[in-house]
Amino acid sequence: MSKLIPLGSFRGGPGPRCLIMFIYLHYFSGMMFWFMVRHERFVVGVHSRLRKILVR
After folding, report:
1. pLDDT at 44 over 50
2. Considering the entire predicted model, what is its pTM?
3. How many domains does the chain have?
């Protein structure tokens, strides 16, 4: 089934990779959202600079 539908981290049921991703998203998504809202201009500037450097 994974050849037809890309399931990524969740393929094969709740394995360790799936559980780690769930725990990470559950505990750190709130802090990440707060940081992105508070420092949006800075993050956008850093992202555009990194993209210019890495895409070359």
Report:
1. yes
2. 0.41
3. 1
